[in-house]
Structure to design on (396 residues):
């Protein structure tokens, strides 16, 4: 028999699995082109051509014993150096290979750093709505995730509420900008205010509060909006990056953690993370994917494609009377449900073959998430279905 805790986790994850199965079943009955599946954040733009070229080059020209061999837990030194230099050029930072640890995507990086930092009972704060897996990641190490209620007018972080939520047990704050599920990008002004507040709290409490910046969507920002690089604002920042979305490589499981030398207890944090990655069972990030990432770390996906999708779905839904904050990044739209019970709204949407995710999965009931990383035709064909849904709820 499996553990009691795992039984609960299996039960908890069944909603997403059920939606996935339902989508497949609907596609079998109605045809895949007649089902509008906006449920998954799986990039639909193929990886840049350079990724294929890099893979071919590495497999043909590099020493196979090196490419496929065991390595230091933090990853290839030359890969970490290349990425550190790229970050320094782009963001004016001063990282070396020693500040980077290659990870198994953003999920792997978050687990490594939480394993490294958390004592049982310590608290991690985040702002709702948030990526639902944070609950499990924090609980994996006996921590408590505390979600701060959203400011639904802007979905920018509510710093007054954060100030009240920090306690002597607060070990870390996780932020995610560009945000899943709202698409909101935290402004520089917000980051400055957040940094000041955390500095002040650290002084008051005599503790270290690490700011974990979960950044899989850093490169997906529209209209020239800037995504501030957080280590420049707050000394105790750890960045978790992923190539899952920026290079459309979610299945290759590759990302990295940046642990700046200015962190409190830097050497212990770095050494701890090197042990955590090994004992969590990853051992190290996949070797071939690391080498590809280094060769492609300044490439990006076709952002224009997502931007066009963004305009199409945002304007389309607004014209139909739905309300939402215009996303500035990522590839999600967080739409206000016309009724309080957004799960009932998601259920109603299925009648029109629209698959949406309930905001409760992100700690924010009353809203639904639409992932617009889909084929253009899916959005075009879905708009008439959204119109019927809007009519059902008296929006048009
Ligand atoms: N964090 C956020 C906010 C995400 O949206 C995701 C994936 O969708 C992840 C982390 C996990 O990313 P990865 O696939 O790189 O592990």
């Amino acid at each position: 028999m499996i553990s009691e805790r795992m039984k609960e986790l299996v039960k908890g994850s069944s909603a997403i699995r059920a939606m996935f199965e339902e989508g497949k079943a609907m596609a079998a009955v109605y045809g895949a082109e007649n089902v509008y599946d906006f449920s998954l954040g799986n990039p639909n733009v193929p990886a840049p051509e350079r990724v294929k070229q890099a893979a071919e080059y590495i497999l043909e020209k590099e020493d196979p014993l090196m490419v496929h061999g065991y390595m230091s837990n933090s990853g290839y030194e030359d890969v970490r150096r290349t990425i550190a230099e790229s970050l320094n050029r782009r963001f004016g930072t001063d990282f070396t290979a020693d500040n980077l640890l290659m990870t198994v995507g953003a999920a792997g990086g978050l687990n490594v750093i939480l394993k490294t930092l958390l004592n049982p009972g310590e608290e991690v704060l985040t702002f709702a709505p948030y990526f639902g897996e944070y609950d499990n990641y924090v609980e994996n190490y006996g921590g408590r995730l505390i979600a701060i209620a959203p400011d639904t007018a802007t979905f920018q972080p509510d710093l007054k509420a954060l100030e009240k939520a920090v306690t002597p047990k607060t070990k870390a704050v996780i932020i995610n900008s560009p945000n899943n599920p709202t698409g909101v990008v935290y402004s520089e002004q917000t980051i400055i205010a957040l940094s000041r507040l955390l500095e002040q709290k650290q002084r008051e409490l005599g503790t270290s509060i690490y700011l974990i910046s979960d950044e899989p969507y850093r490169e997906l920002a529209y209209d020239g909006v800037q995504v501030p690089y957080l280590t420049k604002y707050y000394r105790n920042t750890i960045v978790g990056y992923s190539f899952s979305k920026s290079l459309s490589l979610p299945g290759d499981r590759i990302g990295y953690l940046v642990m700046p030398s200015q962190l409190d207890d830097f050497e212990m944090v770095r050494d701890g993370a090197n042990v955590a990655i090994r004992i969590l069972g990853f051992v190290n990030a996949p070797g071939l994917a690391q080498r590809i990432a280094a060769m492609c770390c300044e490439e990006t996906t076709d952002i224009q494609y997502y931007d066009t999708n963004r305009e199409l779905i945002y304007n389309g839904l607004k014209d139909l009377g739905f309300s939402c904050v215009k996303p500035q990044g990522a590839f999600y739209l967080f739409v206000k449900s016309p009724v309080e019970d957004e799960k009932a709204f998601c259920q109603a949407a299925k009648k029109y073959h629209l698959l949406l995710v309930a905001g409760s999965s992100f700690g924010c009931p009353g809203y639904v998430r639409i992932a617009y990383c889909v084929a253009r035709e899916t959005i075009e064909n879905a708009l008439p279905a959204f119109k019927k849904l809007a009519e059902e709820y008296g929006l048009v």
The first helix runs from residue 4 to 30. The chain has a mean pLDDT of 96. Residues 182 and 334 are 5 Å apart (CA to CA).
